[in-house]
From TrEMBL:
Protein name, UniProt field: Dipeptidase
SUPFAM superfamilies from the UniProt entry: Zn-dependent exopeptidases (SSF53187)
This enzyme's EC code(s): 3.4.13.-
Domain Peptidase M20 dimerisation: 192-350
One GO MF term: dipeptidase activity
A Gene Ontology BP annotation from the UniProt entry: proteolysis
Organism: Blastopirellula sediminis
Family matches, as Pfam families: M20_dimer (PF07687), Peptidase_M20 (PF01546)
Keywords attached to this entry: Dipeptidase, Hydrolase, Metal-binding, Protease
Amino acid sequence: MSELQTFLSENRSKFEADLCDLLKIPSVSTDSRYKEDVREAAAWLHRQFGDLGFQTKIYETAGHPIVYAESPAVPGAPIALVYGHYDVQPPEPLDEWKSPPFEPTIRDGNIYARGATDDKGQMLTHVKSVEAWMKSVGKLPIQVKFLIEGEEEIGSEHLVPFIKEHDEMLECDVVVISDTSQFGPGQPAITYGLKGIAYYELKLTGPKQDLHSGTFGGAVTNPANTLAKMLSSLIDDKGRVQVPGFYDDVDPLTDEERDQFASLDFSDADFMRSIGVTGLTGESGYSTLERRWTRPTFDINGITSGYQGEGAKTVLPAKASAKFSFRLVPHQDPKQLSESLKKHLEALIPPGIKMELIDFHGAPGFVVPLDSPYMSAAASAIEKGFGRPPVFIREGGSIPIVTNFVEQLGVDVLLLGWGLNDDNTHSPNEKFCLADFHRGIKASAALWQTLSKITPNQA
């Protein structure tokens, strides 16, 4: 496909100019002052797809618009659905930016702007790759659909019902998402698994008001003491969660996965240095990467009780609360966990204490089989784009919308990240490496070709 490669080479400057145009739009979804800017970002993408001859439409929601586009159908070939988002996080604190957040600036081979890597730059690689196919070859080897939303940074509230209502329109064989990172500089990766999550708040109430700890201590149950005991009951000193049945559905790691993780260029010493700690802990019998990526965990996210001002105040607090979360692995059920957790905690309530357990949200983990033909196609494409094969990694974070795609559309999801871990996502001086921007476009262009070799009903 020499004409395709020539087009990619000759249009590097144009692609960067288009990226700058999109990054200039302050599409901050959480702030109503930017409502029209968010809409302009949607309109910008809509025009891009229209110029390529795609069928495209802006769908209104009760929040921000959703942009949909599709190329012509290719009978007998797989259909890929690209998901991304055009909304961005607020840019504050502004005084920590070296250049204005919505004035894209190139320094040291990186482009700096809010949304550069999350997710405008990464998402745009797929838009530019289909542009290359359409303008050089005249058509794509498969049908590519795009679903680009404007509410990812505020929870994708209106996207889930949209997927349910438009499942026939969104029918596909594989979903492609680029909103993650490479394993390291120059080392592309495919993220084939994500953890799920279950998030709670535990509220304990004791006496009707704070009491003098000297006068009442030892006779009245202290909610803060009780909270500490209840939380400590959830995990042992070997890092094992103690909720009954917690590990019943956890699959053991395969030897192949353990060998693969062990072969990665990773050291505990470098990891500790990067986060500023002098030691690591976790579930016994597992490496740091295995703990982070593949084992379920429990973490307290915040604790509130009693006096927290300057100096001393001896009180027996009337209330105590904590927010905590479990990161889940595939096959663990957040609903089942909630039932077991509630029973476990209720059995620990002492006299004089009332308990309320709030279940905020939950989402299961997911994993794509490493022997999936779509995984092989993605690996081949990435090697063409980046000049070296990707490594296969999992991620300890959760992307709930991925689970929605899997459950609603019944397809595999390819997480192909072009960013880097030091891209300052959600922080001042967010950046995206321009070399990786172009490598991502090249890999994406190759992906449509490698996917075309798969027969959908054999995948």
